[in-house]
Amino acid sequence: MDDVVSKFVRKSKVLYSEALDDLERGNFNKAVSGFYFSVEALANAIVYKYRQRVRGFMGRVNIISKLVSKDVGKKMLYLYELRVLADHKETLLVESDAREAEKIANYLINELRKSLSKLFQLSENSLRFMNSRLIWIQEHFSCVLKYWQEF
Amino acid sequence: MAIILNVNKKVTEIWIRLVLKLYQELNERLGSNFIGLVAAPEPNITLHDINVVVIVKNVSSKVRQEVIDIARQVEEDLGTSPIISSITLERGDLLINEFKGWFYG
User: Fold this and answer.
1) Which of B44, B68, B81 sits opposite A77 (nearest CB)?
2) Architecture of the B9-104 domain
3) Min CA distance, A84 vs chain B (Å)?
4) A58: nearest Cα among B90, B74, B34, B72
5) Could you read off the pLDDT tens digit of each residue along chain B, which spans 105 residues?
6) What is the ipTM of this complex?
């Protein structure tokens, strides 16, 4: 995978996991903001891969609407609206807002990942192969860990 | 000394048509819940990347998503790419004045 693209993908994962952590700790405003930026990082990966120049926020939404789907563009706008409320409004967001942002982020991340996979022409077989390798690594690693603990 | 003011007449015309159509559609579809809107003089004049503030009596996630749907429909009807970046706020929200101030000084 392209180095810059993989950096964006990694950033998206980290931001998402930080947002989940904030949600569990009751940091609802930070969580909403984090969910949005996690989606934005993944969108940036796609935009970068297509070698598109982005002019501002709407430029990004525009490109994603064309490259992925109109629905994804709409949901991004809605999540962004929640992010503006979290970061700029005088009132505080509550847990239900953060849970809603999580739900939308999950949908968007899933759709953007699918699009990114298509982009890299990863077939179902190669994905399955990668998953089986991952399982093998996990199993192998747990054996090594067990051995190490016993040792 | 000269002042060069680059006004893109075509962009402004499209923007005015979009805003008027958006107003009309919101009025029809949100009915009595719709109060009004505050639009930037040009699409590129934004605050927090927002160029249209939609003011309603009662806001909910359903209303917010409906406004986004209406905006996309208006853009499609007028054959433009996504330009309207809106936020839906309740009447009396402090952010409304912040947007008004930014858009119109």
Assistant:
1) B68
2) 2-Layer Sandwich (3.30)
3) 7
4) B72
5) 555 545 567 778 899 999 999 999 999 999 999 999 999 999 999 999 999 999 999 999 999 999 999 999 999 999 998 999 999 999 999 999 999 999 988
6) 0.85
